[in-house]
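Researcher: I'd like a candidate sequence for this fold, 341 residues long. If you have to choose between options at a position, lean toward the conservative one.
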């Protein structure tokens, strides 16, 4: 999270960008960023909280995927809880002090990269579950121990990556108070490390693992195969569409300083940044709601809180539950491992 002082007249090269265009950008950023932050906050808070409730009270942690999916909404939930602070700061100024600046910068970075590492682990786990289904099933107990070690390691690694934001985060005064992170001596190393963990590692893992998964599923039998392929393509497509633009902008910003004087470039920065944050809203849908087991537990929760009669879906829920039982009995191992999480 980097907060630029766009009101600083020296921030832009006014010889190439008119003052009128600069003022339009200021109005756009003051409206667009708070709106996007709050949309991601509300949707991410509701979706990830719902996932956590279901996993805590309804779904037993029987596999590595279950444990990873338990940590994913936790990381995303803490991530979205930092957004109200940035929303207020983007509208007014930073009023929360230096200590909160360091904590929130570190928390933001910690949970952002934890969630990306968890997505990488989920990809590898699905790869093993599909390609080596029998071996993975026979080593379930050992895999659960490794899953706990991996989850703890991911949080520790993300904390280490977040240390520069915690150490060098500070409140600076321009036309207003701004919480930002600036240390030119190590910024290039930090950027390279964070982009490797937050973008390139998940991207390469998805490309390699899902390519093999698709090849395996194409040779599998069963009517669920095509649904599995659709889920895979959806996961990869959403990751690329939300994460690629912002990471490209960060690369350009770190290597081509002349773009800092262009108003159009800063339009691209704030828009792609907001799109990247949508990942926290979409993760519950992509990685949990597509699972038959989770949908079954979701309807149990709805039934327990007494919403089914008002929604008029009691018969549909029973039919869906029966269908899930029939279909799960007829799948082969390869198809089931992608859907019945």
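Model: Candidate sequence:
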């Amino acid at each position: 999270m980097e907060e630029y002082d766009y009101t600083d007249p020296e921030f832009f090269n006014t010889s190439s960008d008119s003052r009128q265009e600069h003022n339009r950008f200021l109005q756009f950023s003051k409206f667009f960023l708070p709106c996007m932050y709050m949309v991601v906050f509300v949707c991410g808070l509701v979706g990830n909280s719902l996932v956590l409730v279901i996993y805590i009270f309804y779904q037993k942690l029987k596999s590595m995927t279950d444990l990873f999916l338990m940590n994913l909404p936790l990381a995303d939930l803490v991530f979205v809880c930092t957004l109200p602070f940035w929303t207020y700061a983007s509208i007014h100024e930073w009023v929360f002090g230096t200590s909160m600046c360091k904590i929130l910068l570190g928390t933001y970075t910690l949970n952002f990269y934890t969630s990306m590492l968890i997505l990488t682990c989920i990809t590898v786990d699905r790869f093993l579950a599909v390609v080596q289904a029998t071996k993975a099933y026979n080593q379930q107990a050992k895999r659960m121990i490794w899953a706990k070690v991996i989850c703890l390691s991911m949080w520790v690694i993300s904390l280490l990556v977040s240390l520069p934001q915690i150490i060098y985060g500070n409140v600076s005064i321009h036309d207003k108070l701004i919480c930002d992170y600036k240390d030119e001596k190590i910024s290039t190393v930090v950027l390279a490390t964070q982009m490797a963990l937050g973008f390139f590692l998940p991207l390469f893992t998805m490309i390699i693992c899902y390519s093999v998964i698709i090849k395996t599923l194409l040779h599998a039998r069963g009517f669920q195969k095509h649904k599995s392929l659709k889920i895979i393509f959806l996961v990869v497509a959403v990751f690329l569409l939300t994460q690629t633009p912002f990471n490209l902008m960060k690369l350009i910003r770190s290597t081509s300083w002349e773009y800092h004087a262009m108003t159009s470039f800063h339009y691209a920065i704030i828009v792609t940044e907001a799109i990247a944050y949508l990942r926290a809203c979409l993760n519950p849908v992509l990685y949990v709601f597509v699972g038959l087991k989770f949908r079954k537990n979701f309807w149990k929760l709805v039934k327990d809180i007494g919403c089914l009669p008002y929604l008029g879906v009691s018969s549909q829920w029973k039919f869906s539950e029966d269908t899930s039982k029939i279909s799960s009995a007829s799948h082969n191992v390869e198809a089931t491992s992608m859907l019945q999480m």
